[in-house]
Amino acid sequence: MWNRRDFLKNIGVAGLFLGTGIIPKRASAAKKELQKITVLHTNDLHSRIEPFPKGDPEFGGLGGFARIHALVQKIRKEEELVLLFDAGDVFQGTPYFNFFKGEAEFKLMSKMRYDAGTIGNHEFDNGIEGIASQLKHLNFPLLNANYDFSETELYGQIPAYKIIDKEDFRIGVFGLGVNLDGYVEPKNRGSISYVDPVDVTGKMVRILKDENTCDLVICLSHLGLKNDLGFDCDVNLARKTRGVDLIIGGHTHTLLETPERVLNLDGEEVLINQVGWAGIALGRIDFYIDKKNKTKLASSKLLSVNEELV
Amino acid sequence: MFNHSFICFHMKLYFNNSIRILFLLLIFSGCSVSSKINKPDHQQNYTIDSVMDSNSQKDTAFVNVIESYKSQLDGEMNTVISVCDEEMITGKPESKLSDYIADAMLAIGKEFCVENQLSHSVDLVIMNQGGIRTGMPKGEITTGRIFEMLPFKNKLVIVGMKGDDLMKLLNQVAGFGGEGISGVKMGIKDKQAVDVLVNGTSVDLGKTYHILSIDYLVNGGGGLSAFETRETFRHLHLKLRSEMIKYIRRDYENGKHISAELDGRIYNVE
């Protein structure tokens, strides 16, 4: 894992990341029998619609929704099957949120054709009604399976999961949020209660994998990658569950050079990825799935979002 | 089927002993070309030209949506309110930026107490580092920059707490590895506050201290639950960000730039 200083030093020097480790020839020969699903993802965009000002001490010149959009459009042209997800905390961080309350972010993300997002703790910065009032600007769902929204304005508005059928494939996606205690003031979270993400994941996998035979199960998580204090986090979730292929994470603003790989209850690898924050990078994971031989391969790329986009 | 020397993690048996996940690592190039990002001496205004990158400009409908919002913000957000002498960022246990903001809050709080003829002043400030969302660049500082640094609607509050409850609060601050503080000096040892001095003297456990902080923290938003044992609570009905903007502007009008020095107010004890 790079720390963010190293990452920034590296992009300062190298500009755009280039994947030099091309898939070996024998693998590319085999690849033709495989079908490819390209998963793109962001997290913790924090209203960074425009890039950071060039003089920013840490992230000068990085990010920007128009660049992410251009990058996603380019990849959509190159690949047949592209999915785009976000792992929460779209809200808060620039005057766009202070003045327009999420409308600008949601409208732009809808134009970028996200398939699904989830709810981060900062989505509650204007209270529950601050989310409810902005949903009309979205053309994709925010997923959450572990908040009990009953008796709140959001009841019935936030699906637990989404099933996406693309070509021969069925992809199941569900959302998990962080325990709001200690992150959101009581008045802003109302009567929402937190449900154990491990139990919920078991239920989601039953629905998505067992009942709906999804080929790929993806969790959009705002739990955070790791937690020193023993609270729920992506790494523990991966260890304590089964059936999830990929956790797209957020909350801790962790910039992973390559996804974490954690063994689940069945001893299978779960990929966990997170790409910093504020749209300084776009995550890309390509799955190669052979339904006949029941194999899955994955490769990843961390794409810097800067002025040298091609 | 695959050349294993290229495969970065083991194949694992999946459901029905059949599905395997392989992970192929694409290595990032670390080309050693010279740096292309030269940091300017002065921060450019809130507006940035690179949103106009040719490639991200092609979808004019998309760019027009950004423009329609941006044009409503630019005037106010681009106003230069001061100059910062050197770049500052947050960091634990102590950082120049958290020192600067906490010291400004102490000055703002003390002035409030005088103006409102309160029977007490402010003894110390606690401000979470997580509430300071971006660094302070060197050069001209705009209103927009302060919005990004302090984006929340946090309001200033003064709470009164007995010395022994204050110690519990400072222990929680130590447990988090440090936060922004002013008016108090403390070491952090085994996640506890040690050698605590408020205004240069050790804490009197029976005395009431007045702490300026933000409503988010005092109301249990940031995990500092010791705030619950407060004796008194006063809302200043002032937003932290607006007060910081005023404070920064006034300093600048008096010829004072934004700057801070580390003074060892909060430190780790080995």
CATH architecture descriptor text of one domain in chain B? Alpha-Beta Complex
Low-confidence stretches of chain B: 1-52
- Number of structurally distinct domains of chain A: 1
Chain pair sharing the greatest interface: A-B, 86 and 82 residues
Largest sheet of chain B, order of strands side by side? 6-3-10-5-11
User: What general form of chain B does the structure show?
Assistant: elongated
Short description:
Chain A is an alpha/beta fold.
Give the secondary structure arrangement, pairings included:
The complex is a heterodimer of chains A (310) and B (270).
Chain A: H1 4-14, H2 25-31, E1 35-42, H3 65-78, E2 82-86, H4 95-100, H5 103-111, E3 117-118, H6 127-132, E4 142-143, E5 147-148, E6 161-166, E7 169-176, H7 186-189, E8 193-194, H8 197-211, E9 216-221, H9 234-240, E10 246-248, E11 260-263, E12 269-273, E13 281-290, E14 295-304
Parallel strand pairs in A: 1-2, 3-4, 7-9, 9-10, 10-12
Antiparallel strand pairs in A: 1-13, 5-8, 6-7, 11-12, 13-14
Chain B: E1 20-25, H1 60-77, E2 80-84, H2 96-115, E3 124-127, E4 139-142, H3 143-149, E5 155-162, H4 163-175, E6 180-182, E7 184-189, E8 192-198, E9 201-202, E10 208-214, H5 215-218, E11 232-239, H6 240-253, E12 266-268
